[in-house]
Amino acid sequence: MDFQLLLSSYASVFTNLQVVLMTLLGAFGGILLGAIPGMTATMGVALLVPFSFGMDLIPAVGLLLGIYCGGMYGGSISAILIHTPGTPSAAATLIDGYPMTQKGQGGYALSVAMFSSFCGGIIGALIMTFASPVIARAAMNFNSGEMFMLAVFGLSVIIAISGRSVVKGLISGFLGMTLCTVGLDPTNGLPRFITRSQTGLYEGFAFIPALIGMFAVAEVIAGVERIVRGTERHAVSHEKITRVLPDGGTIGRIWPNILSGALIGTFVGAIPGAGGDIAVFVSYGANKSFSRQPEKWGTGIPNGVAATESANNGCSGGAMIPLLALGVPGDAVTAVLLGAFIMKGIQPGPMMYVSELPTVYGVFAALMLANLAMLLVGCAGVRFFAKIVSVEKTVLYPIILVVSLLGAFSINKNVFDLGVCVGFGVFGWLMNKYEFPLSPILLTLILGPMCEQNFVRYMNLNHGDFTRIFHSPIAMTFLGLAVLSILYSIWNQGRINRLQAAEAERA
User: Fold this and answer.
1) pTM
2) Under a CB-based contact definition with an 8 Å cutoff, are residues 321 and 360 in contact?
3) Which site in 238, 301, 344, 477 is 20 to 30 Å from 151, CA atoms measured?
4) pLDDT bucket at 303, cuts 50 / 70 / 90
5) Between residues 406 and 271, which one has the greater pLDDT?
6) 292: CB partners within 8 A, 6+ apart
7) How far apart, in Å, are the Cα atoms of 133 and each of 101, 138, 298, 309, 475?
8) In a domain, 27, yes or no
9) Residue 172 near residue 155 (C-beta atoms within 8 A)
10) Is residue 408 very low, low, confident or very high in pLDDT (cuts 50, 70, 90)?
11) How is 127-162 classified by DSSP, letter by letter?
């Protein structure tokens, strides 16, 4: 690595006023888009690619990376404050983020999320800078068998995120896997649980409308029910936000979660097709399993927010690794960035490290600047975001419903998706009413298609001989981790239930 060129690239990027302004603008827009359910970072990057046509490469990349990093953090704002993940990668943040808001700690949760996102992004950017060629080569060893076992490992986290009842968590996971089978068979094109006339379900239930429905619409229905029964209380935030960043004591407690989350996020992000949706649940499950007080996870603690937010922003650096080193996008956002590079006449791939090394180092610096811009914009807005919880519920619920339905419609401009959103809202409300966790359903909706498609592809390539997978060290590593995760999670959840029962008896 040419450290002199690296330092000069950082200096040129950080002192270029156009790059700095474009990155700040991108971070601001990304946070706003990420906070609106359905308006993902991918959509924001795609919308602004045309506006980067007349710019030089690095200012354009700064604008797009600012949206990327800002959108990752922005999704946590609505997840924490109104129980609605703005982006899919913020879905795990609400497990502890929303209970913190219910305790009157919404601003505190936002500051933890912002600091963790920043740290995760910086760690991911540093790993990308110094280890991208090595990690990219390792990621390219992931074929269909390895991807299938990665999905199995991700599904093993279901028990860790099931809450008090493992049985209810498994039932939720089974329901989620069943929902994944609706639509056309991805291999043979045969209809499953639909007729040929149901064109809206050919590709199954649209993920973003289902996500918005299960969390946003379900919360609105539950809130309206409480208002009708007279049990809804107007929550006024009396929390005085004297500092926009966590104090030293909080940082000391959450730092292990930030570090582990960032490492998990970077590794998962470097695997093409994985992304932050998977990384956040893997990080949450791993950090909860190794916590000294796992019974507190899910009740509203900053450790849970830190573990997920550091993971999804760590993915931003991880997803850039295969893009730059191999020309293979790590997720949907980097797929759009790949198009932006090609439009500028640059083909990402191994030769970029030979013929376009200054450009590579400029991208490294732009990602670092994007994370700094996200922190600055987040610090400026955290006091404003925290006031959302003080809005009268009779005003807030209609706003949430309208924004949610608009977000669900905007994905495919399809009225059918509105029906999916409302249907999943009723479904989520009933699941919450009978205390079935929604997180396992969300996880299976993410990993189910990945698991099925890679399994079928692997079986076709190996003529139906599944035993060949046992010759893959990577696949066996993930299988072993899955088994250990399941066994440890069952034991750990049993210990949590015993501790809670003992506390209840003492009370």
Assistant:
1) 0.72
2) no
3) 301
4) very high
5) 406
6) none
7) 42, 9, 37, 25, 22
8) yes
9) no
10) confident
11) HHHHHHHHHHHHHTT--HHHHHHHHHHHHGGGTTTS
CA distance 461 to 458: 5
Structure tokens at 277: 């949706």
Structure tokens at 290: 């190794």
Using the structure block, give the residue that is written with the tokens 């072993």. 480
% of the chain at pLDDT higher than 70? 85
End-to-end Cα spacing for the chain: 61
Residue 139 lies in a domain: yes
Residue 309 vs residues 424, 443, 446: alpha-carbon distances, Å: 25, 16, 18
Strands 191-192 and 183-184: antiparallel
Average pLDDT over residues 127-153: 76
Check residue 213 and report its DSSP letter.
Answer: I
> Which residue blocks in 36-56 are alpha helix, DSSP H?
41-48
Dihedral of CA atoms 358, 364, 366, 369 in degrees, nearest 10, equals: -140
Residue pLDDT, tens place only, 270-293: 776 566 777 888 888 888 888 888
Query: Is the Cβ–Cβ distance between 162 and 172 less than 8 Å?
Result: yes
- State which amino acid sits at residue 53: F
111: tokens are 């500051």
32 occurs within a structural domain: yes
Point out the least confidently predicted range of 55-59, 73-77, 87-91: 87-91
In a domain, 171, yes or no: yes
Residue 244 pLDDT class (50, 70, 90 cuts): confident
Per-residue CA distances from 8 to 13, 97, 356, 362 (Å):
9, 40, 15, 9
Residue range 150-206, pLDDT digits in tens? 788 878 877 766 767 788 888 988 999 999 889 888 777 788 888 777 777 888 888
* Two structure tokens written together for 219: 């919360």
Number of domains in the chain: 1
Domain that holds residue 385: 3-234+262-501
Residue 373 near residue 69 (C-beta atoms within 8 A) = yes
